[in-house]
Amino acid sequence: MKAIIYRQSGPSSVLSLEDIETPLPGPDQVRVKIVCSGVNPTDWKIRSGMTIVHPHGFQIPHQDGSGVIDAIGEDVTERSVGQRVWLYLAAYNNPYGTAAEYCILPVERTVPLPDNTSYELGASLGVPALTAAHCLGGNPAALKDAHVLVAGGAGAVGHYAIELAKFAGAKVAATVSTEEKACLASAAGADLVVNYKDQEAVEQLKNFAPKMDYIVEVAFGTNMEINLALSGLGTKIAVYSNETTDPVLPIRRFMVTNASINFVMLYTVAQHDINNAINWTTDALTRGALSELPIHSFPLKDTAQAQDAVEDGLIGKVVVTP
Ligand SMILES: NC(=O)c1ccc[n+]([C@@H]2O[C@H](COP(=O)([O-])OP(=O)(O)OC[C@H]3O[C@@H](n4cnc5c(N)ncnc54)[C@H](OP(=O)(O)O)[C@@H]3O)[C@@H](O)[C@H]2O)c1
Known about the structure:
The protein is an alpha/beta fold. It has helices at residues 41-48, 119-135, 156-167, 179-188, 201-208, 224-230, 251-255, 271-286, 303-311, and strands at residues 2-5, 16-19, 29-39, 64-72, 84-87, 102-106, 110-112, 147-151, 171-176, 192-195, 214-217, 236-239, 260-263, 295-299, 317-321. Helix 5 (201-208) runs parallel beside helix 6.
């Protein structure tokens, strides 16, 4: 099969298109013929060596994807050949990521893709939607009428945080930095969209809700004052991304709000919580409540350019098609 391979961390030039033997699924694994491979920031970060996970032997990149199951391993009963699926964390502790014609992975990292759902949308879900659902607490029933602030409402995680929260019946405010991103956050269903660079950003958000019940935070340091102003008894802030410099945490100012701050890293979230996030995502997906951001599609041979585009902050979702 054709696959994108790297054997050492580094810039995107370490990626090369190779012909390798098509792998067979082992026990509790399935093999998926990949239609779309979704690209996330984590893919270029791991490849670059930023996260200290270096490939053992070889690595095919990309955690997310969508396709059709074409072989199942021993003991697999919950999936069948010919089933459409979306994939998450495919390349986690597994050399076979989704940037290839085929991927083998543990069966629990495949989720049925409804017939009416495009492969592009399927490949957009994995890391972003599961992170968003987990940051929102994993239980849609708790979101009914809650006030939610999504920082970075046009980002991949932010997009699904808005859509999943709206699907659960929450009132959602989102922050963005440009008009183009404001349009995307509104299209996702945000009730209020605020430019976080605006002098009156806090005031606009406080008019929407004096305090938020949930804050899904992409830039905790930069948005510290917004978070402090919108926090109160019971506010749950989920921090899922770090910035170049770690912020100084004003502990006493946060203490008086009684907010709680949760740090989220999808790779090490308990499977039980991942399953809650999958159930929420699946429910929303089957009811047509999830959409894809504008898609930028690259052929498999141009995976390096696709990863560079994500690193450069291209607006929308980057996918690679074998
Ligand atoms: N911990 C985890 O498990 C986990 C899971 C998924 C993603 N992540 C990380 O989370 C980050 C975002 O991922 P993504 O896939 O959503 O990336 P993305 O699609 O590039 O979105 C990031 C968004 O954040 C916005 N942003 C940046 N600074 C902001 C600020 N101060 N306030 C509000 N918005 C701001 C960006 O727009 P502007 O710059 O124009 O504001 C952009 O729209 C990446 O660093 C990724 O590695 C971590």
